[in-house]
Amino acid sequence: MQLTRRKFVGGIFAGTALLTASGSLFAQVAGRDFAPLSPVQPTDDAAKIEVLEFFSYGCPHCADFNPLLSAWAAKLPADVYLKKVPVSFGRAAWANIARVYYALELLGETKRLDADIFRAIHGERVNLFEERAATDWLVAHGVDRKKFSDAFASFGVASKLRRGDQMAQAYRITGVPTLAVDGKFMVSGADFQEQLAVADKLIARARAEKSKK
To answer: Quick one: DSSP state of residue 42?
Structure first.
């Protein structure tokens, strides 16, 4: 289900342990359900369980996954949070659309426009990979032109873009969408639903490990 480097090179539109809890037995098998991260990566909030999604607006599989992930994230318990990390894999078009994400995040507009951006790119074939085209489209969807342009060109957005690509390297991301749990586990699964089910089990495992500290 993932878009790999090889698959998206041709174009931006064409793809790129046992524990118990609440009386249930959860079993994850390393190599099949998850891959342990070594070294363990730092998270933004050590008191909570962090779930990362490495993604790109340019990835059609990410577009398919997004509504499922959004519905799942809306039901996360208070001790778990989802953080989305757009990646570029060194491609200028994907770096630009990652800048769009970070600029909208800075303006507090990602939640409102997230699904619309995926739909525009993959359903309507709108080119949002160039700054001018993206700006015009966003202005038509209620975003202030100057505020967006300032955010897009800002040092803060550039820093987040660099940090996102550094994280993708640290997590050894080769395809998107990819989920990681609490800096310790890379999620596997035959399909999106299975990946989310595995993520739930790994969240329970991370919670149990935190409770022992």
So the answer is: P
Q: CA Rg, the chain, in Å?
A: 18
- Closest by CA to 191, choosing from 25, 75, 64, 74, is 64
Q: What pLDDT score was predicted for residue 24?
A: 38
Centre a 10 Å sphere on the Cβ of residue 73 and count the other Cβ atoms it contains: 15
Task: Enumerate the domain spans of the chain.
Answer: 3-211
Start-to-end C-alpha separation, the chain:
36
Q: What is the pTM of this model?
A: 0.86
**Token pair listed for 64:** 């398919």
User: Is-cis flag, bond preceding 67, omega within 30?
Assistant: no
Give pLDDT tens digits for 33-47.
Answer: 899 999 999 999 999
pLDDT at 213: 73
> Which CATH number fits the domain 3-211, given the four candidates 3.40.30.10, 2.40.50.140, 3.30.70.2740, 3.40.50.720?
3.40.30.10
E strands along the chain, which residues? 3-4, 18-21, 24-27, 34-36, 49-55, 80-86, 175-176, 178-181, 185-187
Cα–Cα distance measured from residue 76 to residue 31, given in angstroms and rounded to the nearest whole number: 25
